[in-house]
């Protein structure tokens, strides 16, 4: 595509802004966001963790392909370290031996860690409840705000235009262009990118495109005081091997989630009190942890396709309509690779993606698999 052509990206979460930033290097891009700020929903409520062993094989491959960007970001992207090393531990109780062995066999990132080592790292665990675990030394904490601001800066530096409070009301195909209307303006471009997160199916319906059944699911989290007289600074990110809960240090407190996945309509999500109580109960089931109060709680929507794999590619039945959806809980950690692939598929420039990304089977993430 030459510089005079245009792409409209709908949604300024991490998926939309990262793809828009890459595309702006090759074409004129307009980014529309229904909220008053970028990353308002799922991105701004992320657990902010880079975990290469987290997710199915496609997700793990795309996460691995994003690691170099986060460890060595492009010149001028940020003056802040984007990833700070923190081990991830997948914890198994006495009934989860088979799940632990499968996880160890599926991921080269993981090595076994014994109960004794776990207790040394996490002294508040209940020895009688723990079977063992797997540890990943390649993960860490992501600075989500610095990542988001870096992509916004890149986008604007390349001449991209972003409009907030611009909820899309109508999408019409007029000859070879898509006309996208908000309350106040109308925009036209040959390519429209649907990066609307929980609203991805709604955007497709507005455009007359068959929906893919992207399902938003509520995920809750809370902060509590840590165990007294324990230094949490080197504690790992801890995930149940079957993802029944997770916890991690967060700004001197303990972040806990019940890893809930409650189907929801697209909305500004809020936590349910029962989910918060379940989170505490799950962690207390394997830890000696006294919780006197919840210091803070929140919820966000993680959106999945039926096979829990990303959707990235042109809609076969409607030329110029591009899906960038279904990132689930892996959107931030996989954003650089996904942005490169989206830019490659839209612009056609072969020099965008690395050899590692080129080896990925793009059919696994194509919307064609649903058609």
Layout of helices and strands, plus pairs?
Layout: E1 6-10, H1 14-23, E2 28-32, E3 49-50, H2 57-71, E4 83-85, E5 88-93, H3 97-106, E6 110-113, H4 115-121, E7 130-136, E8 140-142, H5 144-157, E9 161-163, E10 170-174, E11 177-181, E12 186-189, E13 191-194, H6 200-206, E14 215-224, E15 237-240, E16 246-250, E17 253-257, E18 262-263, H7 273-284, E19 296-304, E20 311-314, E21 321-325, H8 331-347, H9 355-359
Helix pairs in contact: 1-5, 1-8, 2-8
Tell me the strand percentage band: 25-35%
Indicate how many domains the architecture comprises: 2
Q: State the CATH architecture of the largest domain.
A: 3-Layer(bba) Sandwich
Q: Look at the structure and name the CATH superfamily of the largest domain.
A: FAD/NAD(P)-binding domain
Q: Using the alpha-carbon principal axes, give the shape.
A: globular
Q: List the uncertain runs.
A: none
Q: Helical residue percent? A: 25-40%
Task: Provide a count of the helices.
Answer: 9
If you compute it from the alpha carbons, what radius of gyration comes out, rounded to the nearest whole angstrom? 21 Å
- The N- to C-terminal Cα distance equals 27 Å
Describe the protein.
The protein has 371 residues and is α+β, with helices and mostly antiparallel strands. The protein has 2 domains: 6-77 and 143-214 and 307-370, FAD/NAD(P)-binding domain; 88-136 and 218-299, D-Amino Acid Oxidase, subunit A, domain 2 (D-Amino Acid Oxidase, Chain A, domain 2, 2-Layer Sandwich), CATH 3.30.9.10. Helices cover 26% and strands 27% of the residues. The chain has 9 helices and 21 strands. Strands 5, 6, 7, 14, 15, 16, 17, 18 and 19 form a 9-stranded mixed beta sheet that branches. The protein has a 6-stranded mixed beta sheet with strand order 9-2-1-13-21-20, sandwiched between helices. Helix 1 runs parallel beside helix 5 (144-157) and helix 2 packs across helix 8 (331-347). The longest helix has 17 residues, at 331-347. It is globular and about 65 Å long.
């Amino acid at each position: 595509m030459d510089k005079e052509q245009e792409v409209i990206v709908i949604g300024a979460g991490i998926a939309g802004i990262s793809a828009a930033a890459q595309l702006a290097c090759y074409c004129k891009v307009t980014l529309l966001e229904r909220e008053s700020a970028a990353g308002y929903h799922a991105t701004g409520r992320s657990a902010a963790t880079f975990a290469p062993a987290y997710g199915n094989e496609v997700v793990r491959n795309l996460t691995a392909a994003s690691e170099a960007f986060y460890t060595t970001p492009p010149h001028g992207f940020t003056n802040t370290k984007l990833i700070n090393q923190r081990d991830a531990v997948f914890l198994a109780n006495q009934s989860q031996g088979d799940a632990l062995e499968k996880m160890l066999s599926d991921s080269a990132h993981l090595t076994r860690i014994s109960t004794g080592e776990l207790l040394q790292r996490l002294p508040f665990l209940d020895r009688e409840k723990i079977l063992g675990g797997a540890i990943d030394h390649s993960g860490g904490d992501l600075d989500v705000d610095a990542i988001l601001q870096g992509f916004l800066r890149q986008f604007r530096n390349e001449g991209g235009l972003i409009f907030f409070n611009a909820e899309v009301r109508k999408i019409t195909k007029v000859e070879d262009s898509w006309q996208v209307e908000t309350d106040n303006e109308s925009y036209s471009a040959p390519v429209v990118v649907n990066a609307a997160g929980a609203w991805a199916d709604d955007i497709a319906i507005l455009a007359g495109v068959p929906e893919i059944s992207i399902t938003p699911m509520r995920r809750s989290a809370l902060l509590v005081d840590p165990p007294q007289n324990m230094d949490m600074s080197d504690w790992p990110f801890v995930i149940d091997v079957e993802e029944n809960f997770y916890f991690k240090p967060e700004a001197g407190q303990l972040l806990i989630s019940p890893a809930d996945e409650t189907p929801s309509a697209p909305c500004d999500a809020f936590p349910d009190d029962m989910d918060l109580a379940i989170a505490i109960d799950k962690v207390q089931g394997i830890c000696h942890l006294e919780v006197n109060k919840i210091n803070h709680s929140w919820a966000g929507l993680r959106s999945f396709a039926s096979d829990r794999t990303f959707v990235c590619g042109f809609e076969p039945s409607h030329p110029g309509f591009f899906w960038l959806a279904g990132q689930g809980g892996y959107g931030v950690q996989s954003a650089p690779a996904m942005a490169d692939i989206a830019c490659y598929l839209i612009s056609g420039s072969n020099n965008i993606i690395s050899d590692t990304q080129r080896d990925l089977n793009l059919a696994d993430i194509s919307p064609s698999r649903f058609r």
